[in-house]
């Protein structure tokens, strides 16, 4: 699908979240309290123009430099700006002028409300991140909310994001996935595409693309099935199923293709803000505060070699290999019902 068609959909056709025809934007009841709090400091016009499909607010962000791919009118940028605080920075990139106009129109309003100015917006294509005026290896976290499905070259987006992350940095993003490859005729339907359905990747192709881009062990944080609130559109996509999934992809050297057991364990100290009782790395790793938690080598690295390291004690090393680490993910998100505690929705 051409960029102009998507720009037209987000710049001219849609006027507010209420115009969307799926349940992609879910209700605020599902959000953690700290997210509700930061969203209460976001301007109403920005909130009205929110078209995301998940929650892209990972923990432990204070002081971080964050990039939002396809930031739209800036809801997540302004929420994240509060989480990174005055020492951090959030940069948004989008290709649609009308969306960026709304985001920029309220930059001063948010700076005054927060007591600091730490946001920037760039006009650009997420398939061409090397054309942005930002340094390679300069971001701690890259987020994106319901955008990569709209990209014309999804692998280029993942490769570009990998290049912009610092070592130990993380891509944490929500997007729509299909339970199979989307037929070409469906992918050419402008409304289905604009609604973030027919540009969606088949979930297993996404895992392949992510690994090829250098993100060796993608971790699913949460998923929920999308419903289409319009019977005519629903009939056009049948029998495909779509879901909104949130993944975290770490830029780490030495991740293995499978979860291997070296007899290691971690103990979460309970020190990450908003997570005093336990920390959820993904949908199958919830670590209770103070309790030794056995981990595979990859999970160990995701905690020891990232911004999370100060919040854990680490037991063991890589000296002895005990075989495969059983039950450490890898299957279809459509078969998984879990979500990392409190991180499930938008
Ligand atoms: C579904 S909306 C989501 C916007 C925002 N993330 C949010 O949660 O409200 C998709 C956004 O991605 C932008 N977009 C789509 N494809 C893009 C591309 N290839 N490069 C840059 N921005 C893109 C659109 O302009 C639109 O603002």
Features:
346 residues, alpha/beta, Rossmann fold, Ribosomal Protein L9, domain 1, 8-stranded mixed β-sheet, 3-stranded antiparallel β-sheet, 12 helices, 13 strands, globular, disordered C terminus, binds S-adenosylmethionine
Short account of what is shown:
With 346 residues, this protein is an alpha/beta fold. The protein is built from twelve helices and 13 strands.
What does this 3D model show about the protein?
Helices cover 27% and strands 22% of the residues. The strands form 3 sheets. Strands 1, 2, 3, 4, 5, 6, 7 and 8 form an 8-stranded mixed sheet that branches. It is globular and about 60 Å long. It contains 12 helices and 13 strands. It folds into 2 domains: 249 residues, Rossmann fold (3-Layer(aba) Sandwich), CATH 3.40.50.150; 66 residues, Ribosomal Protein L9, domain 1, CATH 3.40.5.100. The C terminus is likely disordered. S-adenosylmethionine (SAM) binds next to helix 1 and helix 4.
Tell me the layout of helices and strands:
Elements: H1 3-13, H2 33-39, H3 44-48, E1 65-69, H4 75-84, E2 89-94, H5 97-105, H6 107-114, E3 119-123, E4 139-145, H7 154-164, E5 165-178, H8 184-187, H9 190-194, E6 201-202, H10 203-212, E7 219-225, H11 231-237, E8 242-250, E9 264-268, E10 278-282, E11 285-288, E12 292-295, H12 297-304, E13 312-315
Parallel strand pairs: 1-2, 1-4, 2-3, 4-5, 5-6
Antiparallel strand pairs: 5-8, 7-8, 9-12, 9-13, 10-11
The structure holds S-adenosylmethionine.
């Amino acid at each position: 699908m051409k960029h102009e068609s998507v720009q037209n959909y987000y710049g001219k056709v849609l006027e507010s979240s209420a115009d969307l025809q799926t349940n992609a934007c879910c209700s605020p009841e599902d959000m953690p309290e700290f997210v509700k709090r930061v969203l209460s400091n976001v301007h109403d016009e920005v909130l009205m123009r929110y078209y995301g499909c998940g929650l892209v607010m990972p923990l432990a962000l204070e002081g971080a430099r964050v990039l939002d791919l396809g930031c739209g009118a800036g809801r997540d940028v302004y929420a994240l700006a509060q989480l990174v605080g005055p020492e951090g920075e959030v940069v948004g990139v989008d290709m649609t002028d009308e969306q960026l106009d709304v985001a920029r129109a309220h930059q001063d309003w948010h700076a005054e409300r927060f007591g600091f100015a730490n946001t920037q917006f760039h006009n650009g294509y997420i398939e061409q991140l090397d054309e942005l005026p930002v340094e390679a290896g300069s971001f701690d976290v890259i987020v994106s909310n319901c955008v990569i499905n709209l990209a014309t070259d999804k692998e280029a987006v993942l490769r570009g994001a990998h290049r912009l992350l610092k070592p130990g940095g993380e891509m944490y993003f929500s997007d729509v996935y299909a339970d199979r490859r989307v037929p070409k005729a469906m992918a050419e339907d402008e409304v289905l595409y604009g609604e973030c359905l027919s540009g969606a990747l088949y979930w297993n192709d996404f895992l392949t693309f992510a690994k090829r881009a250098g993100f060796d062990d993608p971790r699913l944080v949460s998923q929920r099935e999308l419903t289409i609130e319009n019977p005519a559109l629903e009939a056009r996509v049948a029998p495909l199923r779509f879901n909104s999934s949130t993944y975290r992809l770490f830029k780490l050297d030495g991740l293995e293709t499978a979860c291997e057991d070296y007899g290691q364990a971690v103990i979460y100290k309970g020190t990450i803000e908003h997570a005093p009782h336990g920390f959820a790395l993904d949908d199958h790793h919830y670590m209770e505060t103070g309790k030794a938690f056995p981990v595979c080598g990859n999970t160990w690295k995701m905690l020891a070699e990232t911004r999370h390291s100060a919040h854990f004690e680490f037991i063991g090393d890589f000296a002895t290999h005990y075989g495969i680490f059983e039950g450490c993910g890898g299957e279809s998100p459509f078969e998984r019902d879990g979500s990392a505690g409190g991180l499930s929705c938008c």
